[in-house]
Specification:
It is a single chain. The chain is α+β, with helices and mostly antiparallel strands. The chain contains ten helices and seven strands. The protein has a domain of 142 residues: Lambda Exonuclease, Chain A (Alpha-Beta Complex), CATH 3.90.320. The chain has a five-stranded mixed sheet, with helices on both faces. It has a two-stranded antiparallel ribbon with strand order 1-2. Strand 3 and strand 4 form a beta hairpin. It starts with a helix and ends in an 18-residue tail after the last helix.
């Protein structure tokens, strides 16, 4: 009887494992990217240089509500999150190269300004041939990289960010370093303070003071955009803004920085 049972086990057809559903697996991985990015209440204490020149960062009403405290919703999809993570890793690698080259004075350090209140992180601060230079690193895809390489033109939002750092640190020279994510090629675009940049950054600081004051005296700005505008659609506190009421004071949006006057 034992033999018959053994024979049955040996000749029994082995069941094939269930086929892997590729789409389902991809969705599970994508869900993993979004863990910890659920809507949450946040109250901003300062202006952020990396936010100031992008869409909702130019909106006075956004900053008022951010200072007041609101539910922030992360609009990033899984691949945007992956892209940001990849950028963070690239920053660390490039910072290590700066240190190994002997150029780095300091890296990824905090920067503060009291009036208007600003807080951010500077990617790198280097000594280049006896001059102290502020460094901001950005990663980009091959198509955008080749465009910047061909034209020598940086993204103006990136110029805004580094100009804020340069003003606070009182430095006249900076560099934007772009890395091609396809092959890690580097492109350096110098940014030097001139009359045009100086005028814009001084006006931007004054704009921030006006916006901050509106929050301090509890005079909420009115809306500058239609609810279906690109600025509003991508705003992390759109829902809070829609529910906040009309507002009482008109403050223009921050003027965009142009390449020239």
């Amino acid at each position: 009887m034992t033999k018959n049972l053994l024979q049955q086990i040996m000749i029994k057809e082995v069941e094939s494992p269930a086929a892997i559903d590729a789409r389902e697996l991809v969705k599970a991985i994508e869900a993993g990217y979004l863990v910890g990015r659920e809507p949450k209440h946040t109250q901003k204490k300062t202006f952020g240089p990396s936010t100031i020149a992008y869409g909702h960062g130019e909106c006075p009403r956004y900053w008022y509500l951010a200072f007041e405290g609101a539910i922030f919703e992360d609009n990033s999809d899984p691949y945007a999150v992956a892209n940001m993570s990849n950028g963070t890793l690239a920053h660390g690698r490039i910072e290590e190269a700066f240190k190994n080259s002997g150029l780095s004075i300091d890296s990824e350090f905090k920067i503060f300004n009291d009036d208007p209140p600003i807080f951010g992180y500077v990617d790198n601060f280097i000594n280049w041939k006896g001059e102290e230079v502020v460094v901001e690193v950005k990663t980009t895809n091959n198509e955008v990289f080749e465009y910047r390489k061909r034209t020598g033109k940086p993204k103006m939002g990136h110029v805004v960010q580094i100009l804020i750092y340069m003003k606070i640190l009182k430095k006249a020279k900076g560099v934007l370093i772009y890395e091609n994510k396809n092959n890690h090629e580097l492109l350096v675009i110098p940014v030097e303070v001139n009359d045009h940049y100086r005028k814009w950054i001084d006006e931007a600081f004054e704009w921030m003071r006006v916006v901050r004051k509106s929050w301090e005296v509890k005079e909420m700005p009115t809306k500058n955009y239609r609810s279906n505008s690109k600025v509003c659609k991508n705003c992390p506190i759109k829902k809070a803004c829609d529910e906040a009421g009309a507002g009482v004071v008109k403050i223009a949006s921050l003027k965009e920085l142009s390449e020239t006057l």
